Amino acid sequence: MTTLLTLTPSRRPDGVTQLTAVGEIDMSNTDTLATAIETTEGPLVIDLTGIEYLDSAGLSVLFRHVDRIELIATPLLAPVLEVSGLTGLTTVHGLGTP
Length: 98
Hints:
Structural class: alpha/beta
Strand order of the largest sheet: 1-2-3-4-5
């Protein structure tokens, strides 16, 4: 069964595309996330503040695109983003202490 994930693209005031993700990212829906990232040209900001769960399959998709993405996340995701090393490879906003 596919876990619910909603992806909404928008354009930020600076012209950069933003992809807002809501739900959970796991192996059942990473193809959807990968397609959304791969079909967006140029730099991309991915807003993960609406994500309640992110597994290693989701991290793998993000790692493949660290050269062109920035992330917005909540302190809830901080441990997984930090332990995985993703915070050292791309800019991650919003990881202040809870």
